[in-house]
Each structure stands twice: as structure tokens, then as C-alpha cells.
Amino acid sequence: MIEMINVYKKYPNGIVAANGINVEIEQGEFLYVVGPSGAGKSTFIKMMYREERPTSGEIIINGTNLAKLKASRVPYLRRQIGVVFQDFKLLPKLNVYENVAYALEVIEEAPSVIRTRVMEVLELVGLKHKARMFPTELSGGEQQRVSIARSIVNTPKLVIADEPTGNLDPETSWEIMNIFEEINARGTTIIMATHNREIVNTIKHRVIAIEGGLITRDDARGDYGYEG
């Protein structure tokens, strides 16, 4: 599903965030991306949805070479990818239902489809009963659930999560992971950058470690592997 071929990324300040990355990720995998701060994890995942462009190399997702993708086609690429952020990025003036529905409205989905699909994903994340509440009325864990619902409402084949439990307490983090497990069990590929050692060591999946812009470890069912 995803292939990176000799990918380099050098920022204008001289920092090299990707230093010749080669990796393949299959449809339906659950992949943790781990490594120390500043290692290149965020750049690694941002290049997958064209938030960042590689300096050189190829990134192929579902047959599309992102390095050659025209800027006008990027929104269409992102319709196929769900992204979950550490800080939720919800629209404060929209309620829960409207935040999730927005992802379908921008692609001009039929209103009847929007209503059905939004309520389905809100039920999946356990927030159907809070559909009319606003982000400020929700806990951090509930806001992250809304973010996840928004990321999957258009049934993407790939969900990318950047430190999705980073701002949450341990109990809530496990609840969020259970949702990701359910999404993955339905066939969606999950790529999750995380510093949460306990989650990685308990819920076993493939682990890629990045240090200095290089993949230093790729274990089919690995541990977190860092003390810090």
C-alpha cells in the first residue's frame, strides 16, 4: 500500500529529517513509529499526506507517486487518508456532529449519506449521545474521539495518527487505543507515531524506529526499545 524508496528530506536550516528511507507497508497493517524527539518521526508521517515533500526519492501510496503529485491533486489524496493529531484540531464553532460531517460536506456527499455515516462513526467512538455538544464541552479524550471519528467518516484505507494519546491520561489513552484496534480490525491501515512505551509494549504490532532520519529498527512485533 505504501512504499518509500530512497527518501531524503533536508530542511532549509540544514536539518536532515530523512536520510535515505526505504520501507514498505502493506494494506491492513498496524505500524508504530518510535524514536527520540527530533529523530524524524513527524516528517516521516507528514510526507505520507504531503504536508511535507521529500527533497528526493519516491513515496508511493496506492499507486500514486506523491513526489510527482501536482498541488491541485493533494486534496484528493487527503480524501483517502485520515489524520489524527495530538491537539485534536477540531473546529470550535461547530458541534460534534458538524465537525465530523464537515469531512463529508467538503467532498459534496449527499445529505442522507452524511447523516447515516456520521452517526455510525460517532457510535463507534462512543459519542453518539454527545452529537450536539461543542468541543469546549468535552474532555480531552472525548475531543480525540471526535477527531478519530472525523478521520474515518469517509472510510479511508489509511489512518495516520501523530501522538494521538500524547495529551491524554493513561486510562483515556487505552480507550483511544481500543478504538484504533477496532478500526484496524475492519481493514484500515494504521500508522501511529508515539512516545507511549507502555502501549507499544502491551498492544503488539510492527514497530519502526527512526533515529537521525534513518530507520534503525523494523520489528514485526516489536517493543518500544527506548528508556526515555
How would you describe this protein?
The chain has 228 residues and is an alpha/beta fold. The protein has one domain: P-loop containing nucleotide triphosphate hydrolases (Rossmann fold), CATH 3.40.50. The protein is built from 7 helices and 10 strands. The protein has helices at 41-46, 74-78, 96-105, 111-124, 140-152, 170-185, 197-202; strands spanning 2-10, 16-25, 30-34, 56-61, 64-65, 81-84, 158-162, 189-193, 206-211, 214-219. The strands form 2 sheets. Strands 6-7-8-3-9-10 form a 6-stranded mixed sheet. It has a 4-stranded antiparallel sheet with strand order 2-1-4-5. Helix 3 (96-105) crosses helix 4 and helix 5 runs parallel beside helix 6. The longest helix is centred in the C-terminal third of the chain and has 16 residues, at 170-185.
What are the main properties of this structure?
single chain, 228 residues, alpha/beta, Rossmann fold, 7 helices, 31% helix
